[in-house]
Amino acid sequence: MGRNLIPLRESWETTRSAARCPGRHGRAFTLIELLVVIAIMALLMGILLPVLGRVRKQAQKVACLSNLRQMGVALQAYLPDAEYRLPPSSCHTRDPNDHWLRILTRYTREQLLFRCPSDTGKQFVNWDRPLEEQKEARYSSFAVNALLDPIHFRYGGRSNRYNNVNNIRRPMACIWLSEAPDTDSFRLADHIHPELWEGSPEYAKRFIAWDRHRGTAHYLFADGHVEGLKFEQTYDWPGTCNWYPETAPKWPESP
Ligand SMILES: [Zn+2]
Ligand SMILES: [Zn+2]
Fold first, then answer.
1. 118 close to 67: Cβ distance less than 8 angstroms
2. Domain for residue 1, yes or no?
3. Quick one: which ligand is closest to 229's CA?
4. How close is the Cα of 90 to the center of ligand 1, in Å?
5. Which ranges of the chain would DSSP assign to H, the alpha helix?
């Protein structure tokens, strides 16, 4: 065994001295070699950039999911204080301090939680400044399901019983918060009206940022859990409908 090792070691030494061949010292790159190096670098960039883009998108997705989960936690902390009634949207209550967004802030302390990192919108409301000065800014990347507001005409106006999470047929199948698109009509809107979608997923998609996370969006359900779903998984006729509190995940009898 020992005798076998000697020739191996000798051949390694020979290779090392060949690599130190003085003739190769100071030799410049040829143009071809330079082009090859540039081509390899371009190829590596071509491979790496899409990967980096995907990694960034994945990180944004994780941050958005985490934000929504935090809101779910804040909601669970808030509900016992409010006799299990969900916080209202701007649809029926004027004072922004009474809207869900502000109410949950008191239970999280984090303003950025109301923004999805994949939301391309730039201007968001700064609550330390007067709202009148920020007419162009948006409240949030998210919007609540107005069917769960304290007041809704579909459920007898003043006292919507489905505003109380305990009255929702299946809270784990009923969406309370979804991702809202960055459009002009959504600047100051913090809620959506699924009863106006007329059973058409195509029409409904105007009011949801359904494609914010590679064909999916994130939804916070009334029980506080979060899911990333294709919009059609939540609103498909005939099939599933996760938006009506009295029937979710089924469609209600009459529109
Ligand atoms: Zn409204
Ligand atoms: Zn998001």
1. no
2. no
3. 2
4. 7
5. 2-19, 31-81, 100-105, 201-204
The answer to whether residue 87 is domain-embedded is yes
Ligand nearest to the CA of 64: 2
Overall pTM surpassing 0.85 (yes/no): no
Q: Please give the residue range of the domain that contains residue 87.
A: 50-122+137-233
14 in a structural domain: no
Ligand nearest to the CA of 181: 2
Provide the domain count of the chain.
1
Q: Are 246 and 194 in contact (CB under 8 A)?
A: no
177 close to 142: Cβ distance less than 8 angstroms: yes
Cα of 167 from ligand 2 centre, angstroms: 28
pLDDT tens string, the chain, 255 residues long: the values are 444 444 544 444 444 444 454 555 567 788 999 999 999 999 999 999 999 989 999 999 999 999 999 999 999 999 999 999 999 998 877 788 889 988 998 898 776 678 899 998 888 888 888 888 888 888 899 999 999 999 998 998 778 999 999 999 999 999 999 999 988 766 678 999 999 998 899 999 999 999 999 999 999 999 999 999 999 999 998 899 999 999 999 999 865
- Cα 133 to averaged position of ligand 2 atoms, centre (Å): 27
The verdict on residue 3 lying in a domain is: no
**What distance in angstroms lies between residue 147's CA and the mean position of ligand 1's atoms?**
9
- Cα(223) to centroid(ligand 2), Å: 19
* Structure-token match 């800014």, residue found: 137
